[in-house]
Amino acid sequence: MSLKAQIQSDMKDAMRAKEKERLSVIRMLLAAIQTREIEERGELSDQDVLAVVEKLVKQRKDSAKQFADAGRPDREAAELSEAEQLQGYLPEQMSSADIAALVDEVVAATGASGMQDMGKIMGQLKAKAQGRADMGQLSALVKAKLSA
Known about the structure:
Blueprint lengths: L2 H14 L3 H21 L5 H24 L3 H15 L8 H15 L7 H12 L5 H13 L1
Helix pairs in contact: 1-2, 2-3, 3-4, 5-6, 5-7, 6-7
């Protein structure tokens, strides 16, 4: 079963169970997927759906931070709750040790010697860690590794 089909099935389950919050989050996700399909003019692969989910999770976390800075704990909690529900569709996250090992492996495989190789490394890392690691964290590790 594709990820999109799983999300649609979850929407039906949420409707039957009358879970308004969960249903709202799933509908928002499906709308984002549909928008992306219209842009791409075709059905999205599971990798593309994962990218949409990752983007929405990142948006929710950024919004939560902004609400926290503005002194709006109620909206912050709502955004974090949505992010948590969306993360259920992402694969299990990599541990810090796994991420560090992956960065070391890709840097060694590409023979990177400086910051000019950052794009090449990040391209490979994105392919290998899509949905399983925070790209910001990966980027910071790569920068630290290349500048050392």
